[in-house]
């Protein structure tokens, strides 16, 4: 990925955007909003619905207008033949100009090594006494699927490859066809691979509860899932959920604050508050201080991730999960904890908005992943954290989880020597400092 530069000219080579068609369509509003000039109709909508529409509306959403092509490299980059970082960046610049693609995902830039690192992690961790079953949500062009199938075919016992199943859950019919073509480059893969064209957040699409162990892969999926926003007037004032409504003149949008009532928002707030000392927060000193020096608070909540994990745990209670995404984003102008980067590109130049309400189908909205919170949500959706509120419960943890930097993950499971240039520079290990991998597997220590 070509680096972005901020106003001071400092490069951030570890920031990468990506062209991506939505892997799912969560939180469809219950009304038909008019998109001719603006997203919000006559009724207020939650922030997550505004973001979903701004990104995924079939006619005017950001991805819908930019989903005509997916970044696919014709051939793998031969890193060992490049002198160093300067040569690598020059090579990338050439690739972008030749392809006309705005962004490439890391699984594409580092194919096949990125996908093969994921495959190795699965083989080391999976219960191979049962047939291997892998789901990938939002599989893009199929590069990850093909890389994993290639690796297992060449490195695992034949029975593992012969009996495995790889299912891509893909909302885009165009990408579904591209994935079939990519994986079909190896004929034997086609009998193991299939695409299910559906919404991953729709519980009905998963059918009956699957009791067999399986794996779920989500690469750069969490960052574009809709989020909600909560607001508090001061440090000790109660949180309120944020809605978006038209201004009276009908020419702009504004925020509307309501008491917490949405179940997803309330559950996320509950998770955030689990470890806080309510007595301390509501102390006389704290209240007096907040009245003298009130400080409004804004907090973004990954309700889209929570909804998806709720569905996955309900449908696949014995799933193991691998997810990778941004852990932080520099130069974010939108206020609030875990705020998104709202970015548009005109005439080849990136421009960032300071207000998410300015994004009306012309800008990408992507969020950093709070991996601590992701882990808590994962435990919560598995049923463990709910039980812990009952102090008498003997219930054990239902998940074993770990978060790794991308460099740590690839050094453990990948082949870092394959992405190293002649002078020792390694873009996979050196440039992606703002991305992490999250691994979560079920346990059997229920007492």
* Number of self-contained structural domains: 1
Work out the helicity level. 25-40%
What is the number of beta strands? 17
CATH architecture: 3-Layer(aba) Sandwich
Task: Record the strand order, biggest sheet.
Answer: 6-5-4-7-12-17-16
**CATH topology heading:** Rossmann fold
Distance between the termini: 48 Å
Explain what this protein looks like in three dimensions.
One of its GO terms (cellular component) is mitochondrion. Its EC number is 2.1.1.320. It is an enzyme of class 2 (transferase). This protein has one domain: Rossmann fold. The protein has 16 helices and 17 strands. It is an alpha+beta fold and 447 residues long. Helix 5 packs across helix 6 (143-155) and helix 12 packs parallel to helix 13 (371-382). 40% of the residues are buried. The protein has a seven-stranded mixed sheet with strand order 6-5-4-7-12-17-16, sandwiched between helices. Strands 3, 8, 9, 10 and 11 form a five-stranded antiparallel sheet that branches. It has helices spanning 47-56, 62-65, 85-99, 106-109, 113-125, 143-155, 158-163, 173-183, 263-273, 278-281, 284-292, 303-315, 371-382, 384-388, 406-413, 427-430, and strands at 4-5, 11-12, 45-46, 133-137, 165-170, 193-197, 214-219, 228-232, 240-246, 253-259, 297-301, 319-326, 341-346, 349-352, 364-366, 399-405, 435-442.
What topology emerges from the helices and strands here?
Layout: E1 4-5, E2 11-12, E3 45-46, H1 47-56, H2 62-65, H3 85-99, H4 106-109, H5 113-125, E4 133-137, H6 143-155, H7 158-163, E5 165-170, H8 173-183, E6 193-197, E7 214-219, E8 228-232, E9 240-246, E10 253-259, H9 263-273, H10 278-281, H11 284-292, E11 297-301, H12 303-315, E12 319-326, E13 341-346, E14 349-352, E15 364-366, H13 371-382, H14 384-388, E16 399-405, H15 406-413, H16 427-430, E17 435-442
Keywords: Methyltransferase, Mitochondrion, Transferase
Pfam families: Methyltransf_28
InterPro entries: NDUFAF7 (IPR003788), NDUFAF7_sf (IPR038375), SAM-dependent_MTases_sf (IPR029063)
